[in-house]
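Something for you to look into today, if you have time. Just paste the record in under my message, thanks.
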Amino acid sequence: DWTYTYYVARIYNELGDNERFDRYAKAVEDKLQEMISSGRTESSDASTNPYVVLSEIYGMRKDYAKAIDMLNTLAVQYPNTPWIKNQIDTYDKLKKGGTGTDSAKIQ
């Protein structure tokens, strides 16, 4: 299950082991891109939505532009969802060199 691979990637990110984080995150990214390409984006739990997880992976990589792109796509599907706007604002601040709250977790 890709979710466990994602959890392991997050642990390595927290430990600062970028090499292992990148390896696990890449596997998850590939799987999620495959899911998106095949139209499997609905999830009963927001924490397993491919766009949410990809935005978190990109955020951990400090690739804030890609994280924002994923969240903007999600915002079209779920308009007027405050935590999506908050995440976009956080990543936008980080992209501009500011500080943001650690929002790797869905609020």
Q: What stands out?
A: Residues 12 and 28 are 14 Å apart (CA to CA). The helical segments are 2-15, 18-37, 50-60, 64-77, 82-95. The two ends are 24 Å apart (CA to CA).
